[in-house]
Design a protein that fits this description.
This protein is an alpha/beta fold. The chain has a single domain, classed as Decaprenyl diphosphate synthase-like (Undecaprenyl pyrophosphate synthetase, 3-Layer(aba) Sandwich). The chain contains 7 helices and 6 strands; from the N terminus they run βααβαβαβααββα. The chain has a 6-stranded parallel β-sheet, sandwiched between helices. Strand 3, helix 4 and strand 4 form a beta-alpha-beta unit. The protein starts with 9 loop residues before the first strand and ends in a 9-residue tail after the last helix. Bound molecules: 3-methylbut-3-enyl trihydrogen diphosphate (2 copies) and magnesium ion.
Length: about 240
């Protein structure tokens, strides 16, 4: 396990490859999502045990609304089931849950279940778990720009007062405070792109792109990703 000092505080994961995992085994796509959810549980538990402060999981992008309705329905059903099943153990483990994204687009029952889980876990102090759902970084930044423009127009803020820290306060991850910058971004399945994920927050993130498809991404491999991070030389523009 990496030493305490070199552990990333904020890990963000693009959980990709469920469909290809299913296809390679001649299963329907939805079964890839079923197996993917089992991995979510393991990686969340491991992150908490390892001592990661913030874990942000890309579960559904604004672009994923293009998928067939049948697949979307499976995803919302799995989300509800996951929340119902895991809430007690997450609570016991001191996990706090939040959600970022355009939640208003989610079906009512999924939103309700999320609200219940967020409320139930609101006392968690040991790890910030965030699900990015119907999330897109461009939409997030656009929303922040609009809110800042409104504050300026109303006279509550002057444009020359806008700092990077001001923008950060208007992003959906503002509750993470000092941890809002991603230290390590992991995308499984070998794809090497951000797909509209945490563009601002990943400005100085280290990237790891394991070839493994998400349903096969084990805790051992996750620990390997953390080991890789340990060997990075993060200069932040210095020498
Ligand atoms: C990621 O797996 C899960 C979601 C986007 C919800 P995919 O469904 O994108 O799997 P691939 O990329 O088709 O293999
Ligand atoms: C990104 O994966 C979103 C999630 C993993 C939730 P996609 O599979 O949707 O992204 P693209 O289409 O490969 O860019
Ligand atoms: Mg994909």
């Amino acid at each position: 396990m990496p030493s305490e000092r070199l552990l990333p505080e904020h890990v963000a994961i693009i959980m990709d490859g469920n469909g290809r995992w299913a296809k390679s085994r001649r299963y329907p796509r939805f079964y890839g999502h079923v197996r993917g959810v089992a991995r979510v549980k393991q990686i969340v538990t491991a992150s908490r045990q390892i001592g990661i402060k913030a874990l942000t999981l890309y579960a559904f992008s604004t672009e994923n609304w293009k998928r067939p309705e049948q697949e979307l329905n499976v995803l919302w059903a799995l989300l509800k089931k996951y929340l119902r099943r895991e809430i007690a153990s997450m609570k016991k483990n001191g996990i706090r849950l939040r959600v970022i994204g355009e939640l208003a687009r989610l079906p009512g029952d999924a939103r309700q279940e999320l609200g219940r889980a967020i409320e139930e876990l609101s006392c968690g102090k040991d790890m910030e778990l965030t699900f990015a759902l119907s999330y897109g970084a461009r939409a997030e930044i656009t929303h922040a720009v609009r809110a800042i423009a409104e504050a300026c127009a109303s006279g509550a803020m002057k444009s020359d007062q806008i700092q990077e820290s001001t923008v950060e306060k208007y992003l959906s991850t503002s509750y993470l405070g000092e941890w809002s910058n991603v230290d390590l971004l992991i995308r499984t399945s070998g794809e090497k792109r951000l797909s509209n994920y945490l563009l601002w927050q990943c400005s100085y993130a280290e990237f790891d792109f394991p070839e493994t498809l998400w349903p096969d991404y084990s805790v051992e491999e996750f620990k390997k990703s953390l080991e890789n991070f340990k060997n990075r030389n993060r200069r932040f523009g210095g020498v």
